[in-house]
Amino acid sequence: MDAGTTLTIMDIRPFVPELTLLCAGLILILLDLIVKRKEIVAAVGVAGTIAALYATYKLFGYAQPQYAFFDMFVLDGYSSFFKLIFYLNLILTICISVKFMEIEKASCGEYYSLLIFATSGMMIMASAADLIVLYLGLELMALSTYILAGLTRKRHRSNEAALKYFFLGAFSSGFLLYGISLTFGLTGTTNIRDIAHAIYALNVMDSPILYLGMIFIVVAFGFKIALAPFHMWAPDVYEGAPTSITAFMSVGPKAAGFAVLGRVLFDAFGGMQVQWTSVLIPMAVLTMALGSIIALSQTNIKRMLAYSSIAHAGYMLLGVIAGTPEGLTSTANYLMIYTFMNIGAFAIVIMLRREGFRGENIEDFKGLSKSHPLAAALMLIFMFSLTGIPPTAGFVGKFYVFMELINSGYTYLAVIAVVFSAISAFFYLRIVMYMYMKDPGEEIVITTSPSMSIALAITCVMVLILGVFPSFLLNLVRYSILG
Amino acid sequence: MTVHQLIFIYFAIAMTGISLLVVTRRNPVHSVLFMLVLFVHIAALYLFLNAEFLAAVQIIVYAGAIMVLFLFVIMLLNLRREETEEKFHRQWPVSAGAVAVLAVFFIMIVSKIVVLPALGEYSIDAIRSEGSIMTVGKVLFTKYLLPFEIASIILLVAIIGAIVLAKKSTNS
Predict the structure, then answer these.
(1) What is the mean pLDDT of chain A?
(2) Residue in A1, A133, A209 nearest the CB of B150
């Protein structure tokens, strides 16, 4: 115990991206006191994120994973790739929020620092090599998101969303802790690598206690990812929260959930693959079915996108079910693509919002192509991508997940997924139909801002480029995860 | 059956009973007071595990600070209406069924339990030789330094959140 308890400056190096982002968050709190214009606070937030991105880029490329803080924290390609998703999510969310939060009359500097703290929590989750760190990262992310969901205090829906999210989040934390304590009790360690060794050394692979612990952990992340049957909170929370936060929540916590799910299942419970696939397969089928079918009857676009995000979580889970590192690669690839197309779609929803008009009904999109052809065209691209129609990126994402699934021998699951994907086309294309084939009802005024245009440009260009040239992203994700 | 086991059985049964009382009382103040009793019992259970420090923290933090906070909030909110309204909205048969299924599941698992030797470097003897507080302190500031620091950020976020959600609106 006495040997190796000193910490040198080099030990902190793998933690630099997180430290950078946390410092940025702290600076924003202070800056908010001095600077009145929120645009500047937002710009500094983006600058801090880019600094953290640079730190990740500089540390990237080491083939060997680097452990720090007594094996509590690991920096490897896998976590770095997920951090890239978190940075993009953060930057895009900040870009689409500036104007929107002003209209919502909830513009405050803490908003941006909370976004940054939530992202730091996700990064810690992705890099956690120990279940304790994983849990604390999750709490950091979750606590910040609960507050963000309830930030528009005057709206009852927002209060309801925050409370619902908080209660169910606390519930899922309980599940996670049960799972961790059962696993700890059986293996005597919380370190993810050591758990795998202990499972082999003690030969407890068939232990029902370990099975139960694994199920508890999967259930906890099922809540975060919004997998059926733990998806109940998602539609209400997504509808009630401010739309920019909905965009943030539908990507960030989901990606973080998949990052840890992949790490815990592949690294710690790698020897129990038969057991965890048997749990995940019914969950994936149920998630895809519920998400695609219930979305058909929605009239509020945020609720519809919530069910759509549930369905997408089901498709992403298929990559994990494939059970190979390549399968995990396809999930990570899908998550990156999903970030662009989903935030893009939410950005269009945000543009319809103006003083005294919520613009959240699907009816509000009637005849958008006549009054605002560009916005309608962008929405068309995002909807095509969410459906998975080539040449958009959404097709590429689904294609690789299904391919890895078939390579692992789950052809029937791929067939089910394609069927639900076809069903989901109905509600995505209904929006397109409303925009292009119906006559405009009420006059629609679009609120734009320079940062919003930047976000839309990035998302739209990436959706199209990754759809036509998928190899760039695929090479990056393969290099990160497979080495 | 040793005295040890008898005492454990008392605590196990008492805790289950008290937990049920906490969730079934109409008056929230009664619920909170039962919760206080529950926390004391949990602290006693920690003593069984040779974790004196944890038992003391449980009493000081939960029974002392958090329960007082609970009572304050309940008295500030003046929840008279709660006492007259029907609870659980007739959902309890469903949940009772779910609990029964889960109980059968747990009994099945517990019956298959294999007791493994104590694992990890912190055996009871190792902790006794140093003392519980010293061991926790040493580990907390060396091996568990990173979790400790992350917890500080979580507390900061909680403070910010409380201020953001409770402060007066400035721009209206």
Answers:
(1) 90
(2) A133
